[in-house]
Specification:
Mean pLDDT: 97
CATH topology: D-tyrosyl-trna(Tyr) Deacylase, Chain: A
Strand content: 35-45%
Distance between the termini: 6 Å
Oligomer: single chain
Number of strands: 8
Number of domains: 1
CATH class: Alpha Beta
Low-confidence stretches: none
Order of helices and strands: EEEHEEHEHEE
Number of helices: 3
Helix content: 10-25%
Largest sheet: 6 strands, mixed
């Protein structure tokens, strides 16, 4: 699984003009299941992200995890993280998991984050979504397990 995480002061996701999820302060997590991902990947990814020390401590140093900081997460599926740009000008997405597997792993990831005590809201798998955010820092990190 792949994720692009952004430390945020706030974020929201909308479908057809209606806000369906929001978070902040915390993380916006864009998630992509890849072909061959196994059922243990969501737990591994959640564990990795939940422990990343990317939130400021009392002296302004990035030394706290989302759990330490009491942050929440907005989890949004994004199959385009599987983009292959090595040939031509049109990205290929064949490395992404099939939709049924992608949805199952995406939902499992969101549940794993919740199990770790993190407040989680989500987008809608497969929907045309509009994501708004205020990136804090900015801090943007690529994570893959």
């Amino acid at each position: 699984m792949r994720a692009l995480i952004q430390r945020i002061s706030q974020a929201s996701v909308s479908v057809d003009g209606e806000v369906i999820g929001r978070s902040g302060p915390g993380l916006l997590i864009l998630v992509c299941a890849m072909q061959g991902d196994t059922d243990d990947k969501p737990e591994q990814l959640a564990a990795k992200i939940s422990k990343l020390r990317i939130f400021k401590d009392e002296v302004g140093k990035m030394n706290r995890s989302i759990v330490d900081a009491g942050g929440s997460a907005l989890v949004v599926s994004q199959f385009t993280l599987a983009a292959d740009t090595s040939r031509g000008n049109r990205p290929g997405f064949s490395a992404a998991a099939a939709p049924a597997d992608g949805e199952r792993l995406y939902e499992a990831f969101a549940k794993e984050m919740s199990k770790l005590g993190i407040g989680v809201e989500t987008g809608r798998f497969g929907a045309d979504m509009a994501v708004s955010l205020v990136n804090d820092g900015p801090v943007t990190i690529w994570v893959e397990v």
